[in-house]
Amino acid sequence: MSEGNQTGTAYGPGQTAAYRTMTFEERSSAINGVMRRLDRLRGAIDQGGDFFDPFLAARAKEEIASAEERVRAGMGVTVAALAGGTGSGKSTLFNALSGLSFADAGELRPTTEEASACVWNADADAVLDMIGVRPSRRIDYHSILTTGKHDLDSLVLLDLPDHDSVQIGNSVLVDQVLPQVDVLIWVLDPQKYADHLIHESYLAAMRERRDHMIVILNQVDTIPESVVDTLLADVKVLLDRDGLGNVPVYPTSALYRIGLEPIRAKLREAVEGTEAVVATAQAELDAIRRRLSVSVGTREPDVRGEALRRVNRSLYEATGAPAVVQSLRQAGYSLGQTAIANADQPAASMVVATRDAWIAHVRSGLPDRWQEAVTEVIPEPERIRRTIGATIRKVETPKVPRFGALALVALGVILGAAGIVCAALGIPVGAPAARIAFGVAGVVCAVAGWLFGRRAHISAAEKAALAYGDIAMAALYDSAKKLLVDPVAKVLERHREVRESLQV
Q1: Which residues, at least 6 apart from 290, have a Cβ–Cβ distance to it below 8 Å?
Q2: Do strands 116-119 and 249-251 pair parallel, antiparallel, or not at all (unpaired)?
Q3: pLDDT per residue over 256-275, tens digit each?
Q4: What domain range includes position 235?
Q5: How far is the C-alpha of 263 from the C-alpha of 252, rounded, in Å?
Q6: CA 397 from centroid of its chain's CA atoms
């Protein structure tokens, strides 16, 4: 690459989203929105309690506190960070962008053992203290080089330790700092640009920050110019696989100060806006929310609708209540005494099957800890069996009234007998046709009395059967609700509150 090509080429279909300048009202509203999200996430963790993995919850609490601190300390400051592996040339790039020779560039590996910071005309001590940059590793650009206004004023540029360092503390520091950074600049080199560690552990894991990310293919001076485009295209393919297809890729040679202007332009773009810290906090809260969301389901199973009606029907049938209903109906077809079935305690096997089906329903779609919770609050089968038995025995079996039916039959018989007697005695005298009519009417009345009496008895039996079925079903519904629904509903309501708090 010739030294005259100072601008470089961005490889990628898109560009990083530009930061914009926010009004005072917009900034205040955005900060308040971040603080509300912080409070909701804290509330979700507190509400969820043991339903969250304790290590995940502890990590989330620390990250929330860090995000809050970053918002409070970093308004008006834009933090950019150079991240990469050993030998990628981060420190050389840091020195090139700052115009200093402050960072630890050299041949020994690892070279960068501590984070360094260059600050352009900003009070960034609170942010740097939070990030963990020692005062001795900070330099004020203006105090060394110049005075007056600079187009990068309010920028804090970090040179981070190598993420793949053999020193564990270095990679830990990188992991802690990256979520607090507004602009992520990943520095790759032609030899290790495809290293799975940076792609799988860092780039792919930070895809939610892709709108504020830049990728640099550094040290292009070490490869033939004809190969540069091929390597850049290969980097782009790898980024696509990481979910970072819109992130621009710039070729640079930090050693010879080639291709730096696009990077400076992105940094200027960031510092000219005032939303950087808000965007960073929102991205971190999104990441926290996603990690916590694995501990809750996407919905709560319905415990008061069709599922409860199925359970109630199952318990109703298990008690023998349908047999009672049927025997009441059958009683309507006899004017004499009819044996009525009795409902009683359901069979143990039926209760076990019903309970198991209910447990399967209320556990559906819930993570393991919530599944265990809803299972624990459901009573054992024997308790359910005894309670259901006591409930159904309290439902009084109605008697089918026979008085009305018998009265109609008796009236018909009396009228029929009267007609027949009149006809037999020759009443009225001298009117044969009338006597015949009385006789026929008597027979008709007897038959009608019997039919209307029987129909009335059948109707009374049907009403008694329906009334018993409704009362029994309602009583069992109340018992099933108290036994199976109410305890589970408390757990599911807690799940809903946690889930909705995580959706902010």
Answers
A1: 208
A2: unpaired
A3: 999 999 999 888 888 876 56
A4: 76-272
A5: 9
A6: 48
